Queue: 3 jobs
Job 1
Amino acid sequence: MAKSTKGAADFLRSNSTMAALLPALARMGTLQQSVAANLPAMFAACQILQFEAGVLVMSAPNAALAARLKQQTPRLQDRLLKDGWQVNSIRIKVQVGRTAPPPAPKRVLELTENALTSFAELSSTLASDPRSQGLKEAIDAMIRRRDQRRLAKQAGEDPPFLQGK
């Protein structure tokens, strides 16, 4: 047990009124761990608020995460039942004051020089009819954007990602 946790537990034990809270706190901590183990990592900011009469009340830091959590509730409820928790229903409350975890960094995939050469060859071999014109323009725009990013990297600048075109 961490030093601060030990101090809090000692304080609760020293007061008879507060000591009655220890079993409930331990139960909520165990339930929180079980919920965290049964949910994907994106729900790390979601916490248990209350668990009474089979109703589990959870918090989410924003409406978007609450909506995703709502989709997970049937599976979560089944897993908690298997873990021995008598959860009859799960309610979700949005608590804006809580902070959501930072989003995962976006992964940027780069085309190889061989792929770019193949796209350039494809663009040059496409017929000049109206049906192929849209594809030809899209391929040419993709090659231009890739060249701009490559030049920006060589100059030591931040590469321009997704500038509208």
Note: The beta strands are 47-52, 55-60, 89-94.
Job 2
Amino acid sequence: MKMRFSLVIAILLLITISGWGQSELDLGLQIDLVFHNPDIKDYTNLTFRGFSNFHTLRARIIATGAVNDYLSFQGQLLSDNADNPIWFSAYAHLSKPDFPYLNANLGLIPIPLGLFGHRTYADKNPLIGVPLIYNYHTNINVYYPTTNNSQLLSQRGQGYDLGSYYGNTTRGIPIIYDACWNTGINLFGSFKFLDYSVAALSGALAYPKVQIEDRNPNLTAQMVVNPVMGVRAGLFGSWGPYFSKSAEQYFPAGKTVDDFNQVLGGALAEISYWHLESYHELVLNAFEHPYLGYLKNNGFYSEVKYKFLPSWYGAVRYDQMNFNKVEDETNPGSRHTWDYNVKRVEAAIGYYLDRKVLLKLDAQINRFPDQKSLNDEIYALQMTFTL
């Protein structure tokens, strides 16, 4: 299965690349400038690379092109605070005009499920932050698995920095990671009131992989119904290994990354009426662990945006992340959540200077009921230029 997945990706990429020389290239640039209150912790917004939507300067270069009526492509480079840019996406899109039943994305592709993937850009996201289920780092280390609950509990609230492995700061994995995409194949389409999506990915939703390794692919599926105009609701799920290959040396004898999977299920709803838009997602998640069984958590967010004047809008999002309890072996009978629960409220007022310039005045309040030292409040002004 692993070899077949790699072979299919390689063949399709060769077919796609062969046509790129015949296309015309369009380049776009998006620049985000952010000014915020001093001395923020910003633990809940950091990516694996230490990037943040609240950093002072972020820039994206977006390249798009069409080879013909059936084949197009997109690539993106992302730089944070003038750091070296990274590839955010690089994929081909296959579709047939007037045939919505089957389309395909191939390469370093967008997240194939949920509601936030297509709204991740600053000109589409009405707030500055990303929902917790798409970014918040738990205390699970994919390079060096903990061997008992007590060790895991000692690292609660430290997912933003679990120490240094291989010379880099290691951060715990989220439920779904928006800031880096997987290499894979995504088939999707529409049949009247029904939208579907299925995908095979090189890495887990919690820990995406650009390179294709010797492991089982991560499988995802989503089904969404559109019963009436302005209303969408659906279910989604995924299954696949999530540990780094380098962690196998610490596994029980004979075990590999394919023996321990991330299992995820979720529901979504989107409602649009007049000047009102709302998005809602719920995720139930479990990480199968080599020593600790299934570590379960869940999260949800509800987001509302209302356009109250032609160039003005207001938006608010409420998030929660919750973790199941495990027993502390050093204190029999004592049970604690395996990471700290977190709640967030974020609100913003947005103003379009014109179609290419968006201003946001944003407030993000993060609360940890069981560890108040992690509480954080960020007040920020963001300016987004899309060229």
Note: The chain has one domain: 105-386.
Job 3
Amino acid sequence: MPTPLPKLEEMKDILDLKDIHPWDLRWVWGIAISAGLILAFFLGRALWRRLRQPNAEDSGPPLTPEQRALKKLDELVNSRLVEARQERRFYFGLSDLFREFIEDELGIPACEATLEELRPALKASPWLDQAQVRDANWLLELADMAKFAQYVPPREDILKSVKLARTWIQSVAGYRAKVLAEKSAPVQEAEA
């Protein structure tokens, strides 16, 4: 049923239309200024970090794979992860630096390979003898057990693995450098 019309006494005059008020743009300016300040903050922070980084030119000649690996090994030992009972993190670092050295020095893709994939490649390498292959396998197997099987090696094995990694890296790099120097020596004599 339709609503009844009001009585004549209840009716009021029609008032004029109200003017349209302009928008208050202060909030738009506030958002724009806030976004600008946030952007300036992140750009300034990125610039500050870039300026604080040492230049590659200032750091001297690039490190050899041996120097890089030994530096990382020293940093890992000085991190005191073993004393903090974080053997798993220690062996993740040891395995990573050892595999990076194998990849950089010997050209064997070791970083992404499993131990089972790496064993035949180590055995086939002309730069490694039987003892070095055996030592590398022992070290990588111990690291895998500590990383994935939650095996906590005794302190003697941890010390042995650090010493073995250091001597292995030095002996492989030294032997490879010696062989490469001998190969280049006849070429230099022939040119003279």
Note: The two ends are 118 Å apart (CA to CA).
